[in-house]
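Handout, section 4.2: multi-component inputs.
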Amino acid sequence: MSTPANAHGDSPATTEPGVVAAAGDNEAQRREQLLSVENVTLTFGGVKAISDISFNILKGEIRAIIGPNGAGKTSMLNVINGFYHPQKGRISYKGKTRKRMKPYQAASSGIARTFQNVALFSGMSTLDNIMSGRSLKMKRGLIWQMLHVGPARREEIAHREHVEHIIDFLEIAHIRKQPVGKLPYGLQKRVELGRAMAMEPELLLLDEPMAGMNLEEKEDMSRFILDLNSEFGTTIALIEHDMGVVMDLADRVVVLDYGQKIADGTPAEVQSNQNVIDAYLGVAH
Amino acid sequence: METFVAGLHAFLVAPFLDMVSLPDFLLQVIWEGFVSGILYALIALGFVLIYKASAVFNFAQGIMVVFAALVLVSLFDLGVPAWLALIITIAVMGLLALSVERLVLRKLVNQHEAILLMATIGLTLVLKGAGQLVFGGEPKSMITEELGFSTGSSDWEVFDGIVIFQHIDIAAAVIAIIMVAVLGVFFSKTRIGRALRAVADDHQAALSVGISLNQIWAIVWFASGIVALVTGIMWGARSDVSFALEIIALKALAVLILGGFTSVPGAIVGGLIVGIGEKLFEVYWGPMFGGGVEAWFAYVLALIFLLFRPQGMFGERHIERV
Amino acid sequence: MFYREAGQFKTTYEADQAMLPIAQDRVGLLLILLIAFAAIPLLASDFFISSIMIPFLVFALAAVGLNILMGYAGQLSLGTGAFMGVGAYACYKLATLFPDLNILIVVFLSGFFAAGIGVIFGLPSLRIKGLYLAITTLAAQFFLEWCFIRIGWLYNYNDSGAIEVPQRMLFGLAITGPHATPITRYLVILTIVAIMTLVAANVLRGRIGRSWMMIRDMDIAAELMGIRPLFSKLSAFAFSSYYCGVAGALMVFFWLGSAEVESFDINHSFLIMFMVIIGGMGSLAGCFMGAAFIWVLPVILRAIPSAFELNILAATMEHISSIIIGALIIFFLIVEPHGLARLWRVGKEKLRTWPFPYAT
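Output:
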C-alpha cells in the first residue's frame, strides 16, 4: 500500500507547491491540492479545541473528518470557512495562504457548507432558501432591484431556472413553495444541501449531513453526495458519525480526538489503525 | 485654531475647574445624581428579576411603578388608612402578577424574546389605559408623611458651604440597600431562589426536574411588583405620581445595558453611573449644548458603552456556535 | 367558490415569480386601487379624507418603513418617530432654503437625510443584537428629539418652535399649505405611497430583500453564504429610514400643516410599531391593515358617545381604545404572531379549498 506524501501531516512545502500525490492505491496521476491546513491551533479562553492539526483536501475528492464527540470536528470546519480564527497555523486555499478571513469572503472564494443543527432560513420557502444560495451570483444593483424590470427580472428568472435544476436533482419539487420551518427533518437537511449547492462551491463542507436520519434517508443523501461529487466535480469534506457511510463515501479520512489528529489515510488504513480503534471505533461500536 | 483650542478648553478643562472651585456644590450634584441613580437602579432591579427567571424583558416595569403608586395614593384619597392602603396595594400587585402569568406568559412559553418583549409592550398599553381610566390622568402627590417618612432635610456643613440631604432620599438609599441584600439572600439561599436560577438557565430542564414554571413566574412578577411599589413611593415623594414617570423609567433600560440584563449588582452600579453621570453632565457640560441633555445622556452613554463591551460590565463574552 | 386558481397554469418561471400569481388577487388589487383613486375622491367627505384616509396613508408608509427593518431584516427599532422627524425637518429646511424646487422632489430628497441618520444609528447593529439594539435605538429617539428642540436652525428660529408648511404648487394647483384642498393632498399622498409600496415589494422579492431575511432568520448562516452583515444591516436601516423619513415629511406637509417635536416623540414610535405587530411582521399588506386598524379604531370609539348620545368623555374612550389595542397586541402575539395579514392569508387558503378543507 502506497503511503500518501502528506497523509501524516508532512509539510506540503517539501513537494511542489499546491500539487501533491493523491491518496489511494496505484494512483499515479497527481491531483491538485485544493486546501491545506497547517499546524492549526484554536483555543477558547485557555481550552484547546484544536491543537496543531495539519491535513489537506485534494481537488475532487470526498474527504471525511471523523472522531468522537468533542473532538474538534465542527470547530475545524468553522476554521476553514472563517467563522473562527485560529491562534496559530496557516490555511492555504487554492494555493493562496490567507490571514484572517471573514465568513463571507470564504463564501465568495467558493466554500459552502451545511450545519450540524439545520440552519435554514426558517421564515422563507424552500425555493427562497435555495435562491438565497445564489446571492453572490446575482449582480444587479439597488436601482434595478427597485424597478424589477429588464435586467433585474431576467437575472431573477435565470437564477430561478438554475435553482429548479437543483430542486429536481434533490427531488424536492413537491415542497418548493412550503415554508421550511414546518418540513420534516430529513427534508430540511436536503433543502440545506440544495442551498449550499446553489452557491456552486468548489469546496463543500457538510457537517453531519445524515445525523438523525433513517436508513432510507441516509441512502438518498449518500446518493446525492456521490452524484454531486461525480457530476459537478465538487470537492466535499464531510463530518459523519456513521462509519458505514464514511467507509463507502470517503476517498480519504482524517481522524480527530481531543483536538488532535490521530490518523489520516484511506478508509481501510484508518479502520485498521490501532489509535483509531482505541479512541473511537472500539468504544463507540 | 484658537477657537478650537478654546472649545477644547471649555469641554475638557473648564467643567473640572468649576467642580473644584465649588466643592460643596459638586457634592450636592453628586448626591442628587446618587439618589436618582438609586431610583433608576430600583426600576432596573425589577427588570432584572423578571429577566433572570423567565427571559422576559419586561417593558411594563415602568408603568408598573406608576400603577402601584397610583393605586396606593388613590386608595388613601378614598379614605383608606395609609397602612391598609399599602397592604391592599401589595395585594393588587400580587393579583396583577397572577393574571399576567395566567393570561400572558403561560401562553407564550418558549416564544422568541422579541415576541415576549412586545407582549409586555401590549401589557404597558393595557395598564396605562386602565390606570388613566380608573385614576384619571392628573398628577397626584405621594402620601409620604402618612407612610411614616420624614419630609424634612438635614444640612451638612462642608467646604465652607452646605450640602442638603432630604430625609426621604436617605430613606430611599437605605431601603434600596436593604432590598438588594434581601434579594441576594433570597436568590442564593432559599429553595425558590435556586429554582428560579434553574428556570433562568433552561426552561425545559427546570421543568424536567419538577420545578413549576408557572409558580416561579408568578413569584418573580410579584417580587418585581413589590419593587415597583417601593420605587413608586420613593419616586412619588420626590416629584408627583404621574404617567410622565413612564418615559423617565425607560432610562432604566440604559442602566440595564451598562449592568447586564441578569446582574443584580450590575443594576445597582449601572443605576448609579447613569444617575450621577447625567447630573454631572447636565450641570457642568449641559450649558454648552443649551441644556436638556439629561434626556439623552443615559442612552448615548449606553450606546457608546455597548460598542466597546457588548456583554455589559459583569457579563462574560460568549462563544457563538454553529 | 370564486377564489380558485384551478386552470391558471404557469408555463414560465416569470409567471410563477409574479407578485400576485393568482388572477383573483390581481383583480382585487385593481379594485382597491380603483376605489382609492376614483371612488374615494368622488364620494367621500372632506372629513373622511383629511382625518381618516390621509393619516392612514402616512402611517401605512411609516409602517412599511418599520416593517422592512423589523419584519424583514429582524432589527428591532424604537426610533421610528425620530426618523420621521428627520424627514420632516429636512423637508422643511429644503423647502424654505430652495423655494423654487418642486415640492415632490424636496419630499423625496428629505428621505435621504433620514436614511443617513438611520445608518449612523444603525451602526451598533453590527455588534449588538436583539433587545440591546432596541435600547440603542432609544438613544436615537431621545437624542434626535432633543435636537429638534435645541437646534433653532432646524425650524428657522420660529418663536413657536414649530415648523409651518409653506404653500407649494404643482401644475398650478396648491398641493401644500393652507389653501390645498384635502382631495389634492390625498391624491398626492396616495400616489407617492402606492409607488413607494410597489418599489418596496420589488426590493423585498429580489436579492437585497432576500439578504435581509437571511440575516433575520439565521445571521450566521447568512454570513457563511456570502452575505456581508455590514452592508445588509446598514442597507436595511437606510431603506427603512428613508421610508420613515418620507412618511414624516408627508405627515407634516400634507396632513398636519405644522408640527412640533411632539409629533415625532416616542409614543409615535410605539404607535407605528403596534401597526406593524397587529398588521403582521414581514407583510406589506399587513402594514396597511395594521395602520387602518390602529388609526381607525380610536376614531370609531371616539364617535360612539356622540352617536348614541352617551355622556362619556372623549378622553375616556381614548383610554378604552388604549386598553383594547394593548389587549389585542397580546392576543395576536399569542394566537397569530404574524398578525392580520396571516389571518387574511389563512382565510384565503380556506376559501381556495372550500368546500374540501383537507384538499391541499
